[in-house]
Amino acid sequence: MDGSVGVRKGAWSKEEDALLEKCIVKFGEGNWHLVPERAGLNRCRKSCRLRWLNYLSPNIKRGEFGQDEIDLIVRLHKLLGNRWSLIAGRLPGRTANDVKNYWNTHQKKKKEKNEKAVDQSGRESEETSESRSIKPIKPKPRALSVNWPTGTSSNSPGNQNPVKERETRAVLLGRAFGEDGSSGPVRPPSTSYTLDDLFQLETNEDGILVEGNFGTSDLLFDEDPWMN
DNA sequence: AAGTGCTTCAACCGCCATACT
DNA sequence: CAGTATGGCGGTTGAAGCACT
User: Fold this and answer.
1) Which of these, A194, A193, A192, A188, lies nearest to A57 by C-alpha position?
2) Nucleotides of strand B lying closer than 7 angstroms to a protein CB
3) CA of A156: how far to CAs of A55, A145, A207, in Å?
4) How many separate helices (H) and strands (E) can be counted in chain A?
5) What pLDDT sits at residue A7?
6) How far is CA A176 from the centre of its chain?
7) CB pairs under 8 A, 24+ apart, for A142-145?
8) Distance between CA atoms of A24 and A57, rounded to whole angstroms?
9) Residue ranges under compositional bias (Basic and acidic residues) (predicted)?
10) For residues A137 and A169, is the Cβ–Cβ distance under 8 A?
11) Which single residue of A18, A128, A153, A182 has CA 20 to 30 Å from A28?
12) What's the CA gap between A15 and A221, in Å, rounded?
């Protein structure tokens, strides 16, 4: 794979950051397999990419998540499941890692609260809304084939294969969000999408977003989303 | 002030999809 | 068509910092 024998691991030093940044500024993003050599770094390509995307990239927004961002994460997670990259794509300046870390932190607290609730009131929490009805869309939208937009119907194995079928849906989802599949790998768009966009999307693209019965009411919370 | 436990988040790992040869 | 290279993702881990006793 990486063929990386004896590459450096662990936290990045300021010198390494500077080298990587210099390299990206000079050559641009992409060609990650060339980056370690170009930058003069004893790091594997994955490490370089991750460091740039999660930390060094100038687009990254730091600091705490705002309430609107939290709401959006909660709703999108309900819709998409653990599709952190897609969720992060709706949050300008936030990375998938940020969102994932944030979610895991709060999920932990949430779980603990649920367990306490079980201790106190029996099995009430088994009936929590999430476990009851919503099946998040699980498949991973990946880069799209150049033939994808035209060659999907008759020869697509997705029609018989449920997994493929769901993948197709997920790809559609990515496209519907504005990810242009015709030009290579799926990338987060530069603009954000509002919940209104999501709702509209659901109306227009009936059957694409939805797995099971899913309505706009499923995205609404009457109470603190982290509770219960 | 020191020790301990908890939380956060950067980074690694393994896997998968696509592109390329 | 098969094999290989590359990019990208989600899950997990561990170090550092913080809070509490």
Assistant:
1) A188
2) 7-19
3) 39, 12, 18
4) 9, 0
5) 82
6) 15
7) A142/A171, A142/A185, A142/A186, A143/A181, A143/A184, A143/A185, A143/A186, A144/A171, A144/A175, A144/A181, A144/A182, A144/A186
8) 9
9) 112-133
10) yes
11) A182
12) 46
Q: Which pLDDT belongs to residue A100?
A: 93
C-alpha to C-alpha distance for A181 and A171, rounded to whole angstroms: 8
Helix axes A67-80, A195-204, angle to 10 degrees: 30
Residue A220 beta carbon within 7 A of nucleic strand B: no
DSSP 8-state symbol, A177 = T
Which mean pLDDT values do the consecutive 10-residue runs of chain A (228 residues) have? 65 92 89 91 92 90 86 90 91 92 79 61 44 44 37 33 38 41 35 45 40 42 47
Closest CA to A103 of A72, A74, A67: A74
Whether CB of A42 is under 7 Å from strand B: the answer is: no
**Please, which contacts does A127-134 make with residues 24 or more away whose CB atoms are closer than 8 Å?**
A128/A228, A130/A78, A133/A212, A133/A213, A133/A218, A134/A78, A134/A212, A134/A214, A134/A218
**Residue A31 CB in 7 A reach of strand C:** yes
